[in-house]
Specification:
Keywords: Membrane, Transmembrane, Transmembrane helix. By secondary structure, this protein is an all-alpha fold. The protein has one domain. Helix content is about 70%, strand content about 0%. It has ten helices and no strands.
């Protein structure tokens, strides 16, 4: 096989998905929980949380929401995992005036991600001086957050609190979803930084690559779902 053929197949394999694939585990509605989609949902949320913890432990910059959670933890008696859950509940409360409905996945998002963020922070060694390992932490963390997002999104059990806020504001105002997301994440990033959360090259890498990581992993999930049918 020629190198050009191998390269073409690799690019096809890594091609980002433009849509959310429908899988054999996609729920009929936000509360249609089955043993299969439950296990897949929890797995996706767990690796999402571990990915976030890798960014935190890299010490060179968290994702925007983790900058906020970390900053809040520095001024309260709560751990960063607990602050992640508290922020998620507060964001969920903002759904009420926007008439957005939560699902089983929404509630699970709050509990499981916060739990695994804390597990990761407690068990993964923090880095402070090895930039190559720190960048490796960030890269793997972005990959895990992208994979976790793709997995739990395809379950169809409802968006996480942050995604639900973003989409509901878009529906109510007509403002482009990219602009809504940018405004929300810039706001929490600034607040988190003022509170003392870690902002740096890892934050920039996350902002640049998380969209591609999610889209590419949606493609992986689609291919896996098609093969398993």
């Amino acid at each position: 096989m020629k190198i050009t053929d191998i390269w073409r197949k690799l690019l096809h394999f890594l091609k980002p998905s433009r849509t959310i694939p429908h899988t054999s585990w996609t729920a009929k509605n936000r509360w249609a929980v089955t043993p299969k989609n439950f296990c897949i949902l929890i797995f996706g949320l767990a690796i999402f949380g571990l990915g976030e913890s890798l960014l935190i432990q890299s010490a060179i910059g968290n994702s925007p929401w983790s900058v906020f959670a970390q900053g809040l933890s520095l001024h309260t008696p709560f751990t960063i995992g607990e602050c992640t859950a508290i922020i998620s509940v507060a964001v969920l409360a903002l759904w009420l005036p926007l008439r957005e409905r939560p699902g089983f996945g929404t509630i699970s998002n709050i509990i499981v991600i916060a739990l695994f963020v804390q597990i990761g922070v407690d068990t993964i060694p923090a880095l402070n001086s090895n930039i190559f390992l720190q960048i490796a932490y960030v890269t793997i963390g972005i990959g895990l957050v992208g994979a976790g997002s793709a997995i739990y999104i395809t379950c169809g059990l409802g968006p996480g609190p942050r995604d639900g806020l973003m989409t509901s504001i878009h529906k109510r105002t007509g403002i482009r979803i990219s602009r809504v997301r940018l405004a929300i994440e810039l706001t929490v990033l600034i607040i988190g930084k003022l509170l003392g959360g870690t902002l740096g090259i890892g934050t920039a890498m996350f902002a640049l690559f998380i969209g591609a990581a999610i889209a590419t992993n949606l493609n992986f999930v689609s291919k896996f779902a098609n093969r398993s049918r």
